[in-house]
Amino acid sequence: MLNRVILIIALILCGGFAYLVSAQYQPLPIQEDLNQKILGKWVAEDDSDILMLYHSDGKLISYYKGVFYGERKWEFTDVCDRANVRDLQEWDYGILKITAIDDESDYMCYVVQGLESVLTLLRIPEGNLLIYDRVVE
Q1: Cα 55 from Cα 41, distance rounded (Å)
Q2: Distance separating alpha carbons of residues 135 and 43, to the nearest angstrom
Q3: What number of other Cβ atoms are within 10 A of residue 39's Cβ?
C-alpha cells in the first residue's frame, strides 16, 4: 500500500513539474516565418551607405555606397557560440548565424531582437547593437 502511495505522489510531482516547464517555455516563431521575414533589403540606421540583401537561398550580399562589398551565408539556428534559443527573452525572435562562404569557422552570431520593419541584431558575445530599416520598393 505504501509503495502505491509513493508511486502516485511521484507521478503527481512529475506531472506538475512537466506542466511548469511547459508553461514557462514560450515557443519561438516558426523558423519558416523567420526565414521569410528577413528576406529583402535592409539599410543600416547609423550609416545609410550600408545595404544588406538577404536572399532566400541563404546568401547575404552587402553593399557599401552602392558598390558590392561582400557575400556571406545566413541561417537561423538554435545554438551559436554562447547563445542558445532556450536562453532568449520572450521578445527575441531567434539566433542568426552569418558565415563566410568559404570558411565555416569564420562566423558571427546575433540575437534577433526585432524583425518587422526594423531588423535589430545584438552581436554575441560583444553586445554590439545593429539596427537596419527595411527598404520598401
Answers
A1: 9
A2: 7
A3: 11
Contact 99, 109 (CB under 8 A): no
**Residue with the three cell numbers 502516485:** 8
CB 95 within 8 A of CB 78: yes
Phi, psi of 27 (to 5 degrees): -65, 140
6-18 per-position pLDDT tens digit? 556 655 655 544 4
Buried b / exposed e across 82-96, counting CB within 10 Å, b at 16+?
Answer: ebebeebeeebbbbb
Q: Which residue has the cell 544588406?
A: 52
Q: What is the mean pLDDT of the chain?
A: 82
Residue 118's CB is within 10 A of a number of other CB atoms, namely 13
Q: Cα separations (Å) of 35 from 21, 30, 47, 104, 126?
A: 28, 9, 25, 20, 24
SS3 sequence of 58-127? CEEEEEECCEEEEEEEEEEECEECCEEHHHCCCCCCEEEEEEECCEEEEEEEEEEEEECCEEEEEEECCC
Instruction: Evaluate whether 8 touches 97 at the Cβ level (below 8 Å).
Output: no
pTM value is 0.74
